[in-house]
Amino acid sequence: MTSESPITDMHLDVLKEIGNIGAAHAATSLSQLLDRKIDMYVPNVKLVSFDEMFDLAGGAEAIVAGIYLRIEGDLSGSMFFVLSLESSNHFIRRLIDDETFSFSASTLPEIGVSAMQELGNILSGSYLSALSDFTGLKIYPTVPSLSVDMVGAIVSFGLIEVSHYSDEVIVIDTQIREEGESGSTSINGHFFLLPDPSSYITIFKSLGVM
Amino acid sequence: MMVLKEVVRVGIADMNIVKEPMTIRTSGLGSCVGVVLYDEMKKVAGLLHIMLPDSNLGKSNQLNIAKFADTGIYALMEMLKAEGVRPMSLKAKIAGGSQMFQFGSSDTIRIGPRNVEAVKKELRRLSIPIIAEDTGGSSGRTIEFDPATSILNIRTVNQGTKEL
User: Which residues 23-62 in chain B show a CB within 8 A of chain A?
Assistant: First the structure.
């Protein structure tokens, strides 16, 4: 940790609120995009080891579609939206209205990649603008980038910055899920917001808890 | 008779050693590098999963030596020495160091290639020859080493499995 003061439960609660507000906006955007009801789970805010971080995203070796972007500005950090391949397929099929579409690690059709990048844009944009409004901080996201690969390979990239300071990371994890007909495939994804350790104090100050 | 091989798993910024018939494995290497040091005769091997090239980059008071190429490789060699392996007989196989995304903060850009360079520099300094490597590119890797055969098995999402 960069500051002398330890992270308390109150701090984690504030971060949970960030996850709540951000993901609620993102879920609304997704709901409008797909014309479906999207559920959001209560955010999970934890201080975890890097290996535990991979487990939250499905395990180091699990193959997923990961959308990654960096956040710069008053606040810096990494953000991921992680979807299973099945969920990605389901999403793209719905978006382009083509039930035969298939997206796998070995075949990444361009339309699928661009649909996923657009998904990343919309979801991260709504998440982060809500976060910016809530905290009053200026937040500039980079263009999201997509990778279909192992969780460990994708998510570790967002841990490099933190790893200079610590072997643990604060993760704000929010899961969203499409409310589908029972038993049918649905979209089930996780947002992971990983603030850089240098930004912890900025966040807490902006919300009046430090 | 079927012999079930026990696999020792190494996490990120971690290391361990095994003897035959056990194997050692680490999953989901991206920009990180997996370094295997092994003794062919003694059938002993160590695996290290580093994240950063140089321990000078560490900004914490508590240093996790397995996180950095320089401190990690040296520490792994020491662990193997404690098992009676002579440094002279050590060989290395390395994998990882890919560039998963084309952007990042200034510190993370090119972190994969920088990790690979740092690993090679440290191995050269310790006079440990690199017998095989699978580095760079833009794919994740899961690797498993078998000290009985000295074979490093590498699995990627797109290119399947290969043996080095």
Answer: 27-32, 51-52, 57-60
